[in-house]
Design brief:
Blueprint lengths: L1 H4 L23 H4 L2 H10 L16 E3 L4 H7 L19 H7 L3 E3 L25 E5 L2 E4 L3 H13 L5 E4 L4 H17 L4 H9 L15 E5 L14 H9 L5 E5 L4 H4 L4 E7 L2 H10 L3 H5 L4
Antiparallel strand pairs: 1-2, 3-4, 5-6, 6-8, 7-8
The structure holds zinc ion (ZN).
């Protein structure tokens, strides 16, 4: 709560429930209609120039289609998504699909920081600042995952799926501004400061506790469906990510059945880089990151 003590900013930035950092309840649905605005505002706040230093990648390549059978098993539950490019084993195009799935994923030199836990009880280490590079448009990620992130986007496109990044790295300062503006918004309609802080905390991560600070998190939608809500899980983009993201080292960070642990609502659009090995284990085990790391409070 110390962040709230910071001077409130006076800009009239429109705030609403933001991706990945909220635990919005149904009675706050009116906030959600401006979700896109939040995302835009967040990123408009982060337009500092950063050199596009070349990503550092080492090692060979990892072929990720060798376990097609296991992969299908992992995703057996994925039966009702509106995907028209995956799971076509029973189609006449099987051969073509298998060929299309032969993706060579660049290996990323593993670093322990890829498994850092940032949540409401594990704030970002003070002073931690990733080196950044632009991944898509104005959005930046930790430069160590730039290449693999862009490759995932490119490979999805080859499969006819457009992945649209709508949020990525978010500095603590931006989160503070967002948070404080939202507090002000609540106070302007008559809430006490304590009430305003409590209401805001349910929607927006307390500054320092958003995974977006790490540069390892991406919010991904698709041009035809850009709403940050459960509808994204019915898109072909989600189906593609559900099937392939782990092979690039990404996990869907906030699963629907883990909200009691993550303390974050189901966010089918929020992907976190943890490395291929961990991502595959987390996916196969039906875990969330807290469980994988043994950090369940
Ligand atoms: Zn997010």
């Amino acid at each position: 709560m110390k962040y709230i003590i910071c001077a409130f900013l006076t800009c009239s930035l429109l705030i609403a429930s933001g991706c990945s950092d909220r635990t919005a309840s149904n009675d706050e649905l009116e906030q959600q209609q401006s979700t896109q605005q939040i995302s835009q505002d967040i990123d408009e706040d982060t337009t500092e120039d950063f050199a596009d230093a070349p990503a550092e990648f080492e090692g060979g390549v990892v072929k990720h289609d060798e376990d097609e059978t296991a992969d299908d098993n992992i995703h057996a539950a994925q039966t009702d998504t509106a995907d028209d490019t995956d799971d076509t084993d029973d189609s006449a195009d099987t051969a073509n699909e298998e060929k299309a799935d032969e993706k060579q994923v660049s290996a990323v030199q593993f670093d322990d920081s890829f498994l850092m836990l940032v949540n409401s009880t594990h704030p970002l280490a003070e002073g931690y600042t990733p080196e950044l590079a632009y991944v898509q448009g104005e959005y930046r990620v930790d430069k160590r995952i730039l290449q693999v992130s862009q490759q995932m986007i490119a490979d999805a496109r080859k499969d006819g799926v457009e992945l649209l990044v709508c949020s990525a790295y978010r500095p603590v300062e931006s989160q503070t501004r967002l948070f404080n503006n939202k507090v002000n918004e609540w106070m302007s309609v008559g809430k006490s400061k304590d009430e305003a802080v409590a209401l805001t905390s349910a929607l927006i991560a307390v500054p320092g506790t958003s995974e977006h600070h790490t540069g390892l998190a991406l919010d991904i939608v698709t041009p035809s469906y850009q709403s940050l809500d459960e509808g994204f899980a019915k898109t072909s983009a989600f189906a593609w990510l559900d099937k392939h993201a782990a092979d690039y080292g990404f996990i869907m960070r906030y699963p629907a059945d883990k909200t009691d642990i993550t303390k974050i609502d189901y966010e089918s659009w929020h992907y976190r880089y943890v490395g291929v090995e961990a991502a595959r284990e987390i996916k196969a085990g039906g875990l969330c990151l807290e469980e994988y790391l043994g950090e369940i409070s």
